[in-house]
Design goal:
This protein has a domain of 31 residues. The longest helix is centred in the middle third of the chain and has 26 residues. Helices cover 49% and strands 0% of the residues. It is mainly alpha-helical and 71 residues long. The mean pLDDT is 88. The chain is elongated.
Length: 71
């Protein structure tokens, strides 16, 4: 896109709308920075946590603390 075209259209706007355009430009810049940071971060692979914790075999059994409420 041609910068001269952007500038000529921006020059026709009233001051109040120019400040909105400036805010939107700042928003887009911050969004791009965030996307770059997120894409640089390594993503965990599915199943990479396998074997890091173990569940008891009686995990699904009712707790003794709640026997009074289970009738």
């Amino acid at each position: 896109m041609d910068n001269a075209l952007l500038y000529s259209k921006l020059a026709t706007l009233p001051e109040s709308m120019k400040s909105e355009v400036l805010d939107f430009i700042d928003f887009l810049i911050n969004k791009e920075k965030k996307n770059k940071i997120d894409s640089d971060r390594p993503r965990p692979k599915f199943g990479s946590g396998k074997g890091t914790f173990k569940m008891n075999t009686d995990f699904d059994e009712p707790l003794a603390d709640f026997r009074d409420y289970m009738n």
